[in-house]
Specification:
single chain, about 300 residues, three-stranded antiparallel β-sheet, about 45% helix
């Protein structure tokens, strides 16, 4: 049993410092393109909210697709299994912003973590709340115990200016009746969601409800135990774009990555993690982040396998 995660994190930080070939930041979003790919932070949060970190673990960054996990949980908590009539639970095998499968699958995205699926989930949460991005931000502020979390307006504007493919996805699904929010409103909510800034510490703590089988930081229940299992399962099979099999092989934990360079991961019943390093591989996952999580599960033996 690991007595303290800090020595493990310090060891990983030293190893990552010498890692060659850190990848490239997401250059198709201008606001992210200039971030130094060699930056690195990592945090581990225990079930009681105790958090350990190394590197730039308290540095805010653009969360991007990591927030899709929280939007999924908030919607699933409200509408339950009816959500799955509108979005699937299968790996896509295609890039995260692909339009290819939507036509022959009648506007139903493969899973909630590709862009099309996340647009559907955001649409449904917005229908239920009238403010999808605001509800997400309130949730993250509460669960992380950081009321200062906010949307980076420059990043949101940058994504809006370069959001033609997401607009195409939304309009195409709307043609099948699988999007009901007006597309401009939906895109605004979606880009605000992706432009939330948080640190490794914030995200590790905020993800804790998935390690606690659906229980929030204040002891109230967000998800049933079964729903928490479902979210973790979809993270395992679909959370790292079309590299989920390799991530499961190397890391062995449910995880969700974002093109801002972050990855969150869950050890059910034990702890949650967030690692951030902006250099990405060809599939959009942090090179140093995957390596760090690989080392974490190897050193500690904490894995779902």
């Amino acid at each position: 049993m690991v007595q303290s995660f800090l020595p493990v994190l310090e060891r990983i930080g030293e190893e990552i410092e010498g890692l060659a070939g850190r990848g490239r930041p997401a250059d198709y979003i201008p606001a992210l393109a200039a971030v130094d790919p060699n930056r690195f932070g990592m945090a581990v949060a225990e079930l009681d909210g105790t958090v350990y970190g190394v590197g730039e673990w308290q540095q805010p960054f653009s969360t991007q697709s990591v927030t899709k996990v929280f939007t999924l949980a908030l919607d699933l908590a409200r509408e339950g299994d009816s959500l799955w009539e509108h979005v699937g639970r299968e790996p896509s095998g295609n890039p995260f912003n692909s339009l290819v499968q939507l036509e022959y699958e009648h506007g139903i995205p493969r899973n909630p973590f590709i862009n099309a699926g996340a647009l559907v989930v955001t649409d449904r949460l917005h229908r239920l709340t009238g403010d999808a991005s605001g509800n997400l931000l309130d949730f993250l502020r509460t669960e992380s115990a950081n009321p200062d979390l906010d949307v980076n307006r420059d990043v949101a504007a940058s994504e809006t200016a370069h959001g033609d493919r997401n607009a195409a996805l939304a309009h195409f699904m709307a043609s099948y009746g699988n999007i009901t929010t007006p597309v401009p409103t939906l895109l605004r909510e979606y880009f605000r969601q992706c432009a939330i800034e948080a640190s490794c510490a914030d995200l590790a703590v905020a993800t804790g409800f998935l390690a606690r089988h659906g229980i929030r930081a204040d002891g109230t229940r967000l998800l049933t135990r079964s729903q928490a299992k479902q979210v973790n399962a979809v993270m395992m099979t679909c959370g790292t774009y079309d590299a989920a099999g390799d991530f499961a092989y190397r890391v062995g934990l449910p995880g969700k990555s974002g093109v801002g360079g972050a990855i969150i991961a869950v050890v059910p019943g034990r702890c949650t993690l967030c690692v951030w390093s902006p250099g990405l591989d060809d599939r959009g996952n942090s090179v140093a982040g995957v390596a760090a999580l690989d080392r974490f599960t190897t050193i500690t033996g904490l894995s779902v396998f």
